[in-house]
Amino acid sequence: MDKYSVQFDDLFKIAWEEDAVNNVFTEDDVQQLVRDEGSYEIDERKVDTLQGASATLTRPDTDKQEFDVIGDVSEAQTDLDKMLSSEVQDTHRELSGSVDDKPAQEGMVWALAGGDEDIATNFHRFVPDMAIEFPFELDKFQKEAIYYLEKGESVFVAAHTSAGKTVVAEYAFALATKHCTRAVYTAPIKTISNQKYRDFCGKFDVGLLTGDVSIRPEATCLIMTTEILRSMLYRGADIIRDIEWVIFDEVHYVNDAERGVVWEEVIIMLPKHINIVLLSATVPNAVEFAEWIGRTKQKKIRVTSTNKRPVPLEHCLFYSGETYKVCEKDMFLTQGFREAKDTFKMKNSNKLGVKPGSKSGTPATRPGTQGRNPDTSSRGKDQKHPKHHHTNSGAAAIQQSSSGSKRSESSFWMPLINNLLKKSLVPVVIFCFSKNRCDRSADSMFGADLTSNSDKSEIRVFCDKAFSRLKGSDRNLPQVVGIQSLLRRGIGVHHAGLLPIVKEVVEMLFCRGVIKVLFSTETFAMGVNAPARTVVFDSLRKFDGKEHRKLLPGEYIQMAGRAGRRGLDTIGTVMIMCRDEIPEESDLKNLIVGKPTRLESQFRLTYTMILHLLRVEELKVEDMLKRSFAEFHAQKKLPEKEELLLQMLRQPTKTIECIKGEPSIEEYYDMFLEAEKLREYITEAIMQLPASQQFLGPGRLVVVESKSDDDHLLGVIVKNPSGSLKQYVVFVLTGECTSSALAPNLSNQNDNAQGEVQQGYMVIPPKGKRGMDDEFFSAGSTRKSSGVIKIKLPHKGDASGMGFEVRAVENKEIVSICTSKIKIDQFRLLEEPSKTVYSTTVQLLIKAQPDGHKYPPALDPIKDLKMKDMDQVQKYHAYNRLLEKMSENKCHGCIKLKEHKSLMKEQKVYKTQMDELKYQMSDEALQQMPQFQGRIDVLKEIQYVDSDLVVQLKGRVACEMNSGEELISTECLFENQLDDLEPEEAVAIMSAFVFQQRNASEPSLTPKLADAKKRLYDTAIRLGQLQKHHEVPVDPEEYARDNLKFGLVEVVYEWAKGTPFADICELTDVSEGLIVRTIVRLDETCREFRNAASIMGNSALFKKMEIASNAIKRDIVFSASLYVTGI
């Protein structure tokens, strides 16, 4: 029985030891039981089966000879379910080599951290025959990764920027070549894919697959974007069978809000035979992420990392022409920061004087400008240019700035550049968080010339070769001419607004070392492998598309990591520009030495994902949700919850034996719970009534909620809330009342008698029952209270045989306000405690209890307290009816009622815990399950799937739509919105699916295009409203705005008609680079629409999309990448 699960062994052992049953199992029954127990997918049928099994095991039926624990549960698990079984352990597999003698019983630890010195020391003995030789000594983390690759294991390499992670990718390619299998390298950015194609081309048999390029798809080693690999997996492409390695570069891109989900989808869908290589910058939770992948793929993931950068960094502040070192060797230098702060204070006090009341060291700046990115205050004006007006790099753009502002910019940058040149700290990358800021900064340096004659010659020859592939008019584009003017002087610009060919020229020249100063946005740090000697931050704030905010430590580390060239520099320098302020020390420290950003799941459901998964038999949507990184921790705990459930099922439940026959305690207890809810509601309402406050004064009897399960407590208000104590001070009886507790002079007193009692106390009957001469009075010895409480609350004691307590009570703890009052001595109860006073108060409270009742009559909420709210009155009457119904139940007044209520409470808690466990182990507990159901309802209503969730024609068409929003694109086709448009008009309207800039200038459209725009927008609004109706979290207006941006409709229309590129640029304020990117993506959209037309059988649309695609594929927009074709 050793091979079976521990939990069920225990079950069987208990049953056998107690001789409760004789168990006869068939082999099939036991195997099904074990298989079910090891699975993460515990559905309702399984839980019910386990419950039934447990009940059978614990039933004392000695005559029963056999039973079947599982019964007829024959629902087979899918292969993926078996794959993810938490109990699957291959105990026969032993790891070879002296460094892998870790015990196999480490359980479900899938991520194994590296750091074994033995591998680095004896690397050549462990790996005597390398698949590829490197002309340099490998680092420790590289040796570890290669060792594990040779063993056929998956690895996660989390290393610093420029540490040499690409070596691991190269080795995976070499192994695939050696084994005659295939390898796939995926990258988040097309630029990286193109660069890697160029780097690997001379070493391996390489192919390239991106959205617009397909080169040698039959090659052994394929470089592609992650989205293309996802499409292959959804389609079940034949190539997948041949793949041995998949390399994910820049894995930290999983944090991207828009595209991060793609990484999770691909990792989840990769077949088990494929090994994974993950390359990432340093992240604090690399082991956690690797654990998720390992658990999902049921394979060990080796985590290797670097402890420090190969080239250490020093961080400095640059202020007023001087450099102040603030961090070295990851240690923050407070002294350097203080020196910079002191210089700042001195300079500002000399110029402006320190304003009274202002913070020390805070500059006297204009309101609203402090701490901003220097370019953000004018962002709105700069981003929306007037027509026929551009901000281009180079000579053609110089005229756009006044000479004064240029001189100001130049005077800002030149001291820094001169400082860097003097210290030989070039080349330098200056990060500006605005395209306009990059252009203006470069243009301002019109007087600087940083290159030698040989550099100028190299730049001129390179540019001539690169731009010679452009036709005449394109060579004279302002951006092309302007960038060459800058480059010849050793100055470069790099941002998303540049033409692709211009960006590549800048990147290649920077890598050659002839560009000395490069003004760039942060895309250069993510998409280009080009380290520099120095990195400069123009600002520590950025606009992220939604708001202006401070840089995150992860963003800073990514960009700062470009400083320091391995093999050339002993140290990399990072400088932070300080214009009119010095950053706060805490902010600066957190930024420089803070932890990088954690890898977080960005998983979200999309309609395309749902439709694809509904067409794939091996993987359900629920499976995809369970295996996402977002659900990792919840799913990881399922075996523990299953064990807990089994333990609860084994516990015998106590039965309630009623002495009056069949028990009706269940019904009584349910009424009791309902009555408690109503009572709490009514009590809260009563305490808020104005009339209640008039009654709640010292001496008023009240019933207070008990802190235990016993009955509520009778008490008297001693003191009202005050400034020092916001609660009522109440004297309550806590012990049981017996006749012997009454003092003789009170217990023998006639109920109607009136007169003086000990220490001036007496019971005051309700006002309506008092005579005219009934008055409150107290003994002459009673002192007036000062209102100060000198006893420690709660104050406990006993008097006259009864326990009491003076405690502070909240409003909500007062259960009811009684009709009676008693006279109290507040002074001797709270300030000078007197045993006699306590004893008398106890006796008066006991005396106030009517015969046969625990509490005096309560004030009527409607008559006495003037409750008028209809809902409150109805609930009050419902409460009274419920009490009346409870009194008619045969359990009411039963001597065992208290015991049975306690048992019922235990059973309710037990059932609640069981239900909660079942829920947590079911699919319904998945975070995105409600949204999934809503999206399914949407797909049913618009007939993408039928009632059985079989994908229909419209759903198959939607699966082809990857570049635009799938529902809007599909509805556009099925509503024949493109039928009455010419190919040029159709492709122009389609640009709304792929254009991404929000604040472009309004295009000038023909009436036909304006109508088409309105139709498409109305369709988006209708779909948004439909989703909102089905509780998908979508705002219709926002949905339409986010997925349809019509800013380039006019530009694309003119381009498709054959207008030169220089002319179409005059029609919009959108930068040339974004225009090119949109048209390139638009060609991909044309292909998708063409495939959709083929599925629909619409030959006219198919032909129209072919014509449209050919119309836009020309000239500079589709010029081949320099990385792919070479110079």
From TrEMBL:
Gene3D superfamilies: 1.10.3380.30, P-loop containing nucleotide triphosphate hydrolases. Keywords: ATP-binding, Cytoplasm, Helicase, Hydrolase, Nucleotide-binding, RNA-binding. It holds the Pfam family Helicase_C. This is Helicase SKI2W. PROSITE patterns: HELICASE_ATP_BIND_1, HELICASE_CTER. It comes from Brachypodium distachyon. InterPro entries: Beta-barrel_MTR4, DEAD/DEAH_box_helicase_dom, Helicase_ATP-bd, Helicase_C-like, MTR4-like_stalk, P-loop_NTPase, RNA-DNA_Helicase, SKI2-like. It comes from the Eukaryota. Residues 359-377 have a biased composition (Polar residues). CDD domains: SF2_C_Ski2. It is found in: Cytoplasm. One of its GO terms (cellular component) is cytoplasm. The keyword RNA-binding applies. Residues 393-405 have a biased composition (Low complexity). The gene is LOC100836649. GO terms for biological process: mRNA catabolic process. Residues 146-301 form the Helicase ATP-binding domain. One of its GO terms (molecular function) is RNA helicase activity. Residues 348-406 are annotated as: Disordered. Residues 420-617 form the Helicase C-terminal domain.
